[in-house]
Amino acid sequence: MSGIVCVFDRGGGTLRKETVTTATETIAHRGPDGSDVWTDDHIGFGHQQLRTTPEGAYDDQPERDDGFVIVSDARLDNRDELLRSLAFTDPPNHIPDSSILLAAYREWGRDCVERLNGSFSFVVWDADERTVFCARDHFGVKPLYYYLDDDLFAVASEPKALLSIPTVPTDVDDLMIADFLMHRFEGKTRSYFDAVKRLSPAHAMSVSAIETESWQYWDLDPTRTVTLESDAAYERRFRELFEQAVESRLRTDSTIGSDLSGGLDSTTVTVGARELLPDTETLHTFSDVYDNAPSSDEREFIELITEKEGISSNYIFLDDVGVLVDIDDVLRYFDHPPYNTTHFGKWMRAKRIDDVGVRVHLKGEQGDETVSHGLGYLPELFRKGRWLRLNNELEALGDVIGASRKQLLINNAVRPLVPMLATRTLRRLRGEPILAERSNPTLHPEFVQKHDLQARFKSMQPAISLFDRTAAYQQYRDLTSGRNTATFETIDLIDAAFGIEPRHPFTDVRLVEFVLAIPASQQLADGYTRSIMRRALGDLLPEKIQWRPWKAMPGEAVNNALQNDQERLQQLVECPDNVTKYLDPQALNEVYDRYLNDGSDRRSLIKALSLSAWLEKHGSDTECG
What residues does 125 pair with on adjacent strands? Predict the structure, then answer.
């Protein structure tokens, strides 16, 4: 997880080296293994290096070669394929990924991104074309932000590097604050600052003094299908691709760790990595646990894995941790309010990972989307009138999870087909809030009206034709959701603060494309969701985990964490001055009372706390004593 900076004076003026140096130093935490800056006339690059691959020992960025310059934060998973296609004379183990990226750009120009597989963000200066080219990986695992006006183009791994440039405005983007408060993360281009934008996943960009172009170089195809001869054939192919995805992310000469929650995603990654690593290498696991929140604690499942040889288990006890744990330290690194209700666990886990000395951090994120629960198969069967198959699936699913066929039919087969307009109309007739006001009851009416948040919320719920509501299309929407992008960006910020590189096997393009294309009946079968993964990896998983219908929910743990910040929460309710632009003080008080009475609406309260702390950091002070 390195850090990159590029500053390009589009007006042709001479760029001050101090500008690039300051921006690069702003993200110094991303470069525990060294940094460097290069400038030439009106272009400048900066790099902060975190070495997590064996070839990283030969990495020297910004890398310059015959009129080309590159900075990158990258790990390529198809190195061997690329090395065979490109003319290198050095031994492969002496060639860092940045050199492969630069050679790929020289060979194929802007089309090089179509040949890449892995996690990457990179910027290339092409002196002959007087053009800056940049690209971001397929799912946005590696972040890339930019600022663009007629005179300046600047790119960086974090907004704070761009905001250090004197001519870049620092105004907060109120629409992003609105999306944050409404719990909507569909957008992929805005940041929490008006002037700073995000390059979307699977996009590239080319900027010269007079022209700008951005384009999508890859997309999933929900209409593509893969048909194999048997269930066993699907299982074998899944196993091959899953092991390839995990093995690609084991390329390191650093200590490796893995999240282990007890759920299916982190467990499969952990057992997959343990199977592929040499017997002499220890795999460290990291698990959030709770003595005072038994419904959120999963030690009975975690210990089925940690008892295996070659695993060193680390428990992170979170009973005494508040939702805004270490908030002053967190906000040194975060360029947005912490938005995940379990943020406190992710932060404390990264601290422990750093303490243990792990640099490569395997995670199970995007597992639910890559290996779908398959519930989209049920409305598809209903829509197509396949009643016998639907009845069989509902009966099997009911046996597994302990629900009635009628309940499953209504909730999982019929309700997804009801148009959102009908649902909203019914709620309106009942006198219930809808859209933005339903998503967060603390929103200030003037803020809602000023930015027409009702319409904005509605626009984030696109109407889908009844005929397009296939299981594959629903999975496609889940895989390409901006929520995943926001999750990866947040994980990047947390792990970067501690000099750790997160790696996500479930974002491997080869695996994702295969699973999206297989029949929905491979994902929901015999009453079990995510069936293909359960079957394909059955020999690695304890039965108690393999056939576990659902994982534990974090609600009790989150509630306890909010209670641990009760004093801070009460202070905010009593003095909400710095959030009154966005939140209605009376509504906030009412929500707080309901929370005290029955524990409801805690998500809105956590959002309010998080926003208040972040705004305070950015100069929005409270007038309360």
Answer: 69, 132
